[in-house]
Amino acid sequence: MKNILKTVRDIDEFHIELFQRLDIGVEIQDFTEPNLTRKEMVSIIDGYRKVFSRFEGIKALHGPFLDLKPASPDLQIREVSYKRYLNAIYAAEQLGIDYIIFHSQINPSLNEPFLENLNNRQSKEFWVKILKETGYRGTILVENIFEESPEMLKKYIETVNMPNVRINLDIGHSKLGKIDLEHWIRELRDYIEYIHIHSNRGVYDEHISPSTEEIEKLYFLLDKYDIDPLLSLEYKIEDLEEEIGRYRL
């Protein structure tokens, strides 16, 4: 049986009894907001800490992503990004989070080999530094966002080359690129630990429910390439119990 999580935008969407009964994990997305004050962060952490004391499922946290670039050549941009990531990791440590998700921040237009290699080397330096400083023992998940194919992300993750830095394949984002899902999975299968599931009509990032055919295709490809990542449902769901039934084939 697949390990399934559901994303929640805030604690009011996290119905612990239902999640427990359905045997699913949770991905909290409160900390994608980049302008949280320290007081707001503490309040959010305190709220989740109380409910997590009764929760036995897998816990993930999506970090901030807007306008951040931890491998930027601009030192000040790197410093701001470091601070934002540090806050997210601090929250994750306080809550016993198993997985933290950050966008790759790869700009596919900057594909000149020197710039691409520089980005990957600086990304490795960033992860070594921040994980050493925080001592975070969970898994960092790097998510595709603007990439139109998996090759740049593959070079990134191979350059970073750390056992606790893995890939979150966002299949909604991949659908907006130029390459079919099978190519993404085939190229990245050794590094995929987690998958964001949602869909769109190929124009923009709508985060709509996938069709049954899309779910069946995903399951076929996971079996074909012999991988069993966590599956996080990142779209609005009216009846969670009914929707989980589509994934418990």
Structure description:
It is a single chain. The protein is α/β, with parallel strands linked by helices. Helix content is 44%, strand content 16%. The chain is built from 9 helices and 8 strands. Strands 1-2-3-4-5-6-7-8 form an 8-stranded parallel beta barrel. Strand 5, helix 5 and strand 6 form a beta-alpha-beta unit. The radius of gyration is 18 Å and the shape is globular. The relative contact order is 0.13. The mean pLDDT is 96.
Give the low-confidence spans: none
Spatial strand arrangement across the major sheet: 1-2-3-4-5-6-7-8
Shape: globular
Kindly report how far apart the N and C termini lie: 8 Å
Beta-strand portion reads 15-25%
Largest sheet: 8 strands, parallel, barrel
The structure class reads alpha/beta
> With helices defined by DSSP (H or I, 4 residues minimum), what is the helix count?
9
Number of strand elements: 8
Write the layout of secondary structure elements.
Layout: E1 4-8, H1 16-22, E2 25-28, H2 38-52, E3 59-62, H3 75-95, E4 99-103, H4 113-134, E5 139-143, H5 151-160, E6 165-170, H6 171-175, H7 181-188, E7 192-197, H8 212-224, E8 230-233, H9 240-247
Parallel strand pairs: 1-2, 1-8, 2-3, 3-4, 4-5, 5-6, 6-7, 7-8
Helix pairs in contact: 4-5
